[in-house]
């Protein structure tokens, strides 16, 4: 596909608003309904909702410099609200739908949000946040009323929205996502329209051979994560017909949708290979054509562009999928880099790598191997946190990713280790284990907890019990402590299983530093088999 006419950076809403004349009657979304049917939404209807949201917000005095939150699960209303916020010139702040009231409160306060779009399921958390925030429903009568009012204003004077969109500068902050640090509260990452637009242009050029304007994508990635937001915006730019479903429905609807495009975290690529194994047998028990036929039946037979992100995909899964006739592209990046730094290309890839640097970026390695990045898609600094910003950049302006890497002789980047203590689950969720472990500090029954789960489907933990707890009572005491802490966490942060360790953590064993800090990697290496047994 020739993408050169699509790569000029523009504010995200323009990809929809500028194409109504040519795409208006085409279907932009098909949304899975409870009865299994699919509700079509045209490009014109989607654009009208975006304009209505923008008009409604402008009428309430919201514009450049204001932050408006979107808190809910994926829906056309979520997408329209987010793009409408940006069309009004404001900054869109997504809140992960699994966020607790405490987590939501932090984001709302830190970003100084006064207006939030919220799904019914997230209303209790918003209420628990206890802030004076004007809430507009995404799936109830308040949404219909708000959109109707905005549509009326836009009909009376469409130039109001047109002028506001035209006034948006590429250096204006279009969205601010909150990302987990190694400890403490999450950090606000402001990204400008230029940051995201330039990164998107690099992405389009890199993947152009596999892209087509009339493709169907199976859209389930959460819009509140930059990976899901990127897929939504890519579909707007290229002209995809997106079939929207929940994460739980993906495998069920795959053959019906028969997508050409599937973007996913590793967990679903693993599910696809397991489904083929179950239906046709493994590589060792079935011939290749039988397995390929099974794969085509499971996916609908059209899958051409496959991208994995959010966490590392095991090489064995990539090799299995290639044997099934599909080469999965994998990349690497961070929220702070808008997000992509490297990508494997359709015509140039290595399964032992995360790809080649994007054209607009410079990458190099520090003396200790840390990956450093510089370029127009790298953010400028954390919101209201100059100390964290200073720590994130070198003195000469290179962003420090916190990941350790190496380059192959032919220029591909390989991730070797992670300097920062963040677990990235198979579902692509970033979880600082320290934040979870700290919640056990004041429990008299618990001496220490170590959370594990990088590239795994859920979190587990090793627990060291206080000597004062009698042996018959240890399991019950730990279970109670885990249950108490889990009640304070988002679902993806909860500890699903644990084991009790009887070997003491000591400096002599190499599991603690001389200042008695945990040597996390050493603990993982020492007890890896025990941790992994919890996933059996």
List the helices and strands and how they pair.
Elements: H1 14-17, H2 20-23, E1 27-32, E2 38-42, H3 43-59, E3 67-71, H4 76-87, E4 91-95, H5 101-110, E5 115-118, H6 123-129, E6 134-137, H7 141-156, H8 159-167, E7 173-179, E8 187-192, H9 193-207, E9 216-219, H10 226-238, E10 241-244, H11 250-257, E11 261-264, H12 266-280, H13 288-299, E12 305-308, H14 315-323, E13 328-333, E14 340-343, E15 356-357, E16 362-365, E17 370-374, H15 386-392, E18 399-407, E19 413-418, E20 423-424, E21 430-431, H16 433-437, E22 446-452, E23 459-465, H17 474-486, E24 495-500, H18 520-533
Parallel strand pairs: 1-10, 3-4, 3-5, 5-6, 9-10, 11-12, 12-13, 23-24
Antiparallel strand pairs: 1-2, 7-8, 13-14, 14-15, 16-17, 17-18, 18-19, 20-21, 22-23
Spans with pLDDT under 50 lasting ≥5 residues? none
Radius of gyration: 24 Å
Total number of helical segments?
18
Roughly what is the average pLDDT, rounded to an integer? 95
Largest sheet: 5 strands, mixed
Strand content: 15-25%
Strand order of the largest sheet: 11-12-13-14-15
Structural class: alpha/beta
Question: How many beta-strand runs?
Answer: 24
* 3D shape: globular
Helix content estimate: 25-40%
What is the end-to-end distance?
44 Å
Q: Please, what is the oligomeric state? A: single chain
